[in-house]
Design goal:
mainly alpha, globular
Length: 122
């Protein structure tokens, strides 16, 4: 939504930067598991290993490279990398579609907006 508003000329710079900061958080600009923890499976050196997903939980489970897990809960930011925790570790279409839509929106920009992210791993 922020990228659509920015494209419509509503606080463009501010909303583009905000969207980029959210993506950076999901991809590792956070303090989870000592920092630099990506909530996208397969991205970076630290990412979810036990997503709550049928294909990943079967014997000889499939790695869901590119899938985004739910991430920290709303009650204090707790995250648990557990197949049994569908709240924080499910790979679902609703937030994966928004995530990939935001990535496409940022990719369509002529330059990546400046952010306040300070992750040492990027």
């Amino acid at each position: 939504i922020a990228m659509a508003a920015a494209k419509a000329g509503i606080n463009s710079g501010r909303y583009q930067s905000w969207a980029a900061e959210q993506i950076n958080y999901l991809l590792g600009d956070n303090h989870e598991n000592g920092g630099c923890y990506s909530f996208q499976i397969g991205y970076g050196s630290k990412f979810p290993q036990h997503p709550h997903h049928r294909a990943a939980s079967s014997t000889g489970g499939h790695e869901l490279t590119g899938g985004l897990v739910g991430g920290p809960d709303n009650a204090g930011g707790h995250y648990e990398d557990s197949q049994g925790n569908y709240v924080t570790n499910e790979v679902a279409i609703d937030y994966n579609s928004g995530f990939h839509g935001a990535l496409a929106g940022i990719n369509a920009l002529s330059s990546v907006p400046s952010t306040n992210n300070k992750c040492p791993c990027h």
